[in-house]
TrEMBL record:
Protein name: Uncharacterized protein
Membrane spanning residue stretches: 20-42, 204-224, 244-269, 290-313
Cross-referenced PANTHER family: CELL MEMBRANE PROTEIN YLR413W-RELATED, PROTEIN ECM7
UniProt entry tagged with the keyword Magnesium: no
One cellular component term from this protein's GO annotations in UniProt: plasma membrane
Keywords, in A-Z order: Membrane, Transmembrane, Transmembrane helix
Secretion signal span: none
Species of provenance: Cyberlindnera jadinii (strain ATCC 18201 / CBS 1600 / BCRC 20928 / JCM 3617 / NBRC 0987 / NRRL Y-1542) (Torula yeast)
Length: 394
């Protein structure tokens, strides 16, 4: 969006489209800053966060079905072509009793952020909350029926988290426990690579936050200086506008990398966890609040880039096409621009200067216009005489 130039200076009247553009330039970075501040505050709150990143839902945990399915699969794999072995009644009863005992020690849900994980228990299943303090975490009274225990962890090493919280039996049955060296080593290699990538996301989001703040300040400076977002008549602001458009493009790319890194890696981890726990009814979810805010910040970064890159790099350049003569007349911008170009040509062309000087000495412009047959071979040029324009036949 560029201001309309008239009389050698910017117009004082701001058009409706200018007001809309200015509003978008300010509102997009502001919203992005607010969302990112809220996101980081949620990640660093004490206790259960209102914006966790990932959740393990074991409220519908079915140990009986999970163990039965795994054991049945094991029997089927060991069966020969002529014999079919199934889980016996005594095995089923043993599984039922074991399931009842183990269900009492598992959390209903696990919420993870960048810094910590919180385990939610039914209060009726926690005999002595003081026992949780011994583990070095924080016990919270999140509601009348739930108790939450939080500890510092990394996102999202789910097997290490669950191994000490009643899920070790599931990990052992699915051959993903520490006892299975080969499988657990493969898991650790994968989780380390994904964790390293995920751990870089907060730094990228901090860059986006600072970048949006810088964009907001520079936008205010430009607006306050010329009362227009882009004043092409001012070389300094023109250069600053182009630099800011490139800056917003970089911000958009960084936001895209952060969102894709976070989403792709956690989707992969969710798939791994569901493969381990699907038969037990355990669900792994990416929390809507966090990812909704993160992708909203990405969208805002795109729109912030668009309101700068579009006008700065995609619009046609404008010219100061006014002619402040003593008579106070002004030409149309395009016509004035062409006349100025013609004046420049006349100044640089000695031959035309010679011809024009000879004609002005011998005849007046009006006399020449009344006698178009002065010369048989002619060429026409535009000249500017005071505030009028004539065509001279040479």
């Amino acid at each position: 969006m560029a201001g309309v130039l008239s009389g050698g200076k910017l117009k004082d009247i701001v058009h409706v489209k200018d007001v809309v553009h200015i509003t978008l330039v300010f509102i997009f970075p502001f919203i992005s800053i607010v969302l990112l501040v809220v996101m980081f505050a949620a990640q660093h709150t004490d206790g259960l966060s209102f914006m966790p990143v990932v959740q393990i839902d074991s409220s519908r945990l079915d140990l009986y079905n999970g163990m039965y399915s795994l054991l049945q699969q094991g029997y089927s794999d060991m069966s020969s072509d002529n014999t079919v072995e199934t889980v016996t009644t005594s095995t089923v009863l043993l599984i039922a009793n074991l399931s009842t005992a183990l269900l009492e020690s598992t959390p209903n849900k696990v919420y993870s952020t960048f810094k910590k994980s919180c385990f939610l228990f039914d209060r009726s299943e926690v005999d002595d909350s003081s026992e949780l303090h011994v583990l070095g975490g924080t016990v919270l009274n999140s509601s009348a029926s739930l108790a939450a225990y939080c500890e510092d962890t990394r996102l999202f090493d789910y097997r290490t988290l669950l191994d000490n919280w009643g899920y070790s039996y599931m990990l052992a049955l699915t051959e993903t426990s520490k006892a299975d060296d080969s499988s657990y080593h493969d898991y650790q290699t994968s989780i380390d690579a994904k964790s390293d990538a995920i751990n870089r996301v907060p730094s990228l989001l901090v860059f986006v936050l600072v970048s949006q703040f810088v964009t907001l300040l520079v936008s205010f400076y430009i607006w306050n200086t010329r009362r227009h977002i882009i004043a092409r008549a001012n070389t300094t602001l023109l250069v600053l506008g182009h630099a800011l458009s490139i800056w917003t493009l970089i911000t958009f790319i960084v936001a895209l990398v952060a969102c894709l890194t976070m989403t792709v890696n956690l989707l992969s981890l969710r798939s791994m966890a569901e493969d381990d726990f699907a038969s037990f009814g355990v669900k792994v979810k990416l929390c809507t609040n966090f990812f909704g805010v993160m992708w909203t910040v990405f969208a805002i970064s795109f729109f912030t880039m668009a309101v700068w890159v579009g006008p700065m790099w995609c619009s046609a350049p404008e010219h100061d096409d006014t002619d402040d003569d003593d008579a106070g007349s002004a030409y149309d911008s395009d016509e004035g621009y062409e006349l100025e170009r013609f004046d420049t040509v006349l100044d640089d062309d000695d031959d035309l200067d010679f011809k024009l000087g000879r004609l002005e000495r011998d005849h007046t412009v009006e006399h020449m216009l009344r006698k178009p047959s002065f010369s048989q071979s002619s060429s026409s040029v535009n000249v500017k005489n005071g505030s009028s324009v004539g065509r001279i036949i040479i």
